[in-house]
Specification:
This protein has 200 residues and is mainly α. It contains 7 helices and 2 strands, in the order αββαααααα. Bound molecules: zinc ion.
Length: 200
């Protein structure tokens, strides 16, 4: 039997298929906007059709085998011949508000880079927070204009957090002496007894 090429499948057909049976509760998008917002991060983007079961693993080209994702989320989506994981991933990694997902990922990356959450350092007082958030919004939209949304990966956003914080406190942010990820890895691998560092 001849297959229908995926490219003729309209995005609205994919939305219509899933909105008929799948609950939008717990997704990053409302079905009403699902033809223009990424189903994972909820950002307005040029959406890509993402196979749920990869074409190369026998996934069909009908709407039942597609979700709509932005380029960044498409790259991170699970690529296995079992459709459960796409939906588990979509429903377990979203945030409840539009246009905040990647800022949140940037904050997580900041924590990896500097060992603490952004806007929480010893030189940062709480009164600075409203100004910091305002500057952050400005700097992120400026970066989007320069680079395009798809270029703002979590480490770029984390660096913008750091620049805003430094601009407000006048102090340079010092990275931690050792990486939090590596500490967790060593701990999980049994090399580290506690947070006090490697066993001697
Ligand atoms: Zn996305």
């Amino acid at each position: 039997m001849e297959r229908q090429p995926a490219r003729i499948l309209d995005k609205r057909n994919i939305v219509a298929y899933w909105s008929a049976g799948e609950d939008e509760c717990g997704l990053g998008v409302d079905w009403a906007e699902a033809h223009e917002r990424c189903w994972r991060c909820g950002y307005k983007s040029r959406l890509q059709r993402c196979h749920i079961i990869p074409h190369s693993r026998g996934g069909p080209d009908g709407p039942e085998n597609f979700v709509l994702l932005c380029r960044r989320c498409h790259r991170e989506a699970p690529n296995v011949p079992d459709s459960r994981f796409m939906w588990i991933w979509l429903r377990s990694t979203f945030v409840s508000f539009y246009d905040l997902y990647w800022t949140e990922r940037g904050a997580e990356e900041f924590e990896e880079m500097f060992g603490r959450p952004p806007f929480s350092g010893p030189d940062f007082s709480e009164e600075l927070l409203p100004r910091a958030l305002e500057l952050l919004r400005t700097e992120i939209s400026r970066a989007v204009v320069h680079w395009g949304k798809g270029r703002l990966n979590p480490s770029t956003i984390a660096s913008i957090f750091a620049l805003v914080e430094e601009g407000l406190t006048g102090f340079r942010i010092a990275p931690p002496s050792s990486s939090a990820r590596n500490k967790r890895f060593l701990h999980a691998a049994g090399f580290v007894a506690s947070d006090n560092g490697p066993r001697s």
